Amino acid sequence: MARLLIVDDDERLALALRGALRRRGYEVAHVTTAASALASRHYDLVLLDLGLPDADGLDVCRQLRTSRDIGIIIITGRAKSQDRVLGLAAGADDYVVKPFGLLELIARLQAVLRRYRPERGLLVAGPLLVNLDGHEVLVDGRPVELTRKEFQILALLAGTPGAVVHRQRMVTEVWQTSWLGKSRTVDVHIATMRAKLGPAVTIENVRGVGYRLAPPAPTNGNLHAC
Predict the structure, then answer these.
(1) The pTM is what?
(2) Which residue segments constitute the domains of the chain, with CATH numbers given?
């Protein structure tokens, strides 16, 4: 499981962000000062605000980049183009301006994490998290028990949210055969998965083709600087 560190003296924003990320299966810690951030260890990615009480966030970014092999995403209210350039030049992997949408931030941190943790299989689609290595599924932080074949089907769907996974591909990769006859085995497994995953996760039937995991709906719930 990816370990994240939020470095921000805005307690309200950090609390909301920490809760949202934990519900999606991340381990999240929070500190409010540059000194605490530089003293912290054992994390994979830092979400770094620039307006810290004891140092400029750009200096913290430079020190983290030279001393750690981790992902760094700046989250800040500084929206000028020059600020973005300075942040990326200081070593940040990405630069996100407050207020930001949670789903956008998650997509960005996933992209950064893939650069630093490519060997670890973690699929996230909205409220759904699929841990390939740990054979674990969470929906809004709630563990969901799936059979081996159900897990394999879900992994195929979660690997490309919004894209159709052809029925024949499921048969080939999950059942290791090229034909199941007129059996409705795939449909039965999908129906059981839907019941277990609940309404927060939508698996759509594309008639005559296969199934797809509906992409997360857009949200207006931005996280703001206070």
Answers:
(1) 0.61
(2) 2-116 (3.40.50.2300), 121-213 (1.10.10.10)
